[in-house]
Amino acid sequence: MAEYRVVEKFVSINGEGILAGQLAVFVRFQGCNLDCSFCDTAWANRENAPYTLMTEKEIYDYIKETGVRNVTLTGGEPLLQKDVRVLLELLASDPSIRIEIETNGSIDLTPFKDIGDSIAFTMDYKLPGSLMESRMDECNFDRLSAGDTVKFVAGSQEDLERARDIIEKHGLSEKCHVYISPVFGKIELESIVDYMKENRMNGVNMQLQMHKVIWNPESRGV
Ligand SMILES: C[S@@+](CC[C@H](N)C(=O)[O-])C[C@H]1O[C@@H](n2cnc3c(N)ncnc32)[C@H](O)[C@@H]1O
Ligand SMILES: Nc1nc2[nH]cc(C(=O)O)c2c(=O)[nH]1
Ligand code: SF4
Ligand SMILES: [Mg+2]
What we know:
Elements: E1 3-13, E2 23-29, H1 42-45, E3 52-55, H2 56-66, E4 70-74, H3 84-92, E5 98-103, E6 119-125, E7 149-154, H4 157-169, H5 172-175, E8 177-182, H6 189-198, E9 205-206, H7 210-214
Parallel strand pairs: 2-4, 4-5, 5-6, 6-7, 7-8, 8-9
Antiparallel strand pairs: 1-2, 1-3
Helix pairs in contact: 2-3
The chain binds S-adenosylmethionine, ligand 2KA, iron/sulfur cluster and magnesium ion.
Residues 40-41 line the site of magnesium ion (MG).
Pfam families: Radical_SAM (PF04055)
GO molecular function, one term: carbon-nitrogen lyase activity
Binding site for S-adenosyl-L-methionine: 38-40, 76
């Protein structure tokens, strides 16, 4: 048995991505290797963040007890948990659940790609405003499948321009789902739509974080 550092777990609607609006059970893990300027879960990244050690079996049992079939693993950076493959193999062995992993673009996805089709990656590409772009592993774009997602969290016009360059350079809208999401409160929402219109960004989805509209944006556990 391995053990994982869980800072929170809860049921909500997924506020983001291809399953937005559907119920999901969230497991958030402690610790991250990046320090994005806009991070809304910086509290979870701290070494001293209070966490509960859970085995893969305990995490799986919790998920099953909820009766919710979409599972989102997030953080922090979930793929940094020691022995995370063991957890992913257990979750993937249950065909009744669908697993989504939110990952930060700096972790090589190769070791996780062959675990099973029930696992989908939502990989963030960190734009200039995050101050973390130098950490991106661009080879990950070749490791994504049609069911995966690349997400760009944009806070400025410069970020939008960079997102467009990357989408074109790697042909992302033909390869997988592509989302642009505002850094919460940082950018005029209309300017994202205008940019998409001006540049005819077919196949790209704009998203808003629904949970920050429904609840106080600072709330945890939603
Ligand atoms: C907190 S991260 C955890 C997973 C992983 N570390 C990552 O960055 O993808 C989950 C998602 O929230 C996004 N996010 C964090 N802070 C945000 C903010 N202030 N506004 C919009 N999205 C944000 C991240 O870009 C990422 O897509
Ligand atoms: N409701 C809700 N949906 C989410 N989708 C991705 C989240 C995340 O923090 O990774 C998240 C979150 O924290 N809450
Ligand atoms: S990679 Fe994710 S968890 Fe880590 S600092 Fe950036 S947004 Fe926050
Ligand atoms: Mg979040």
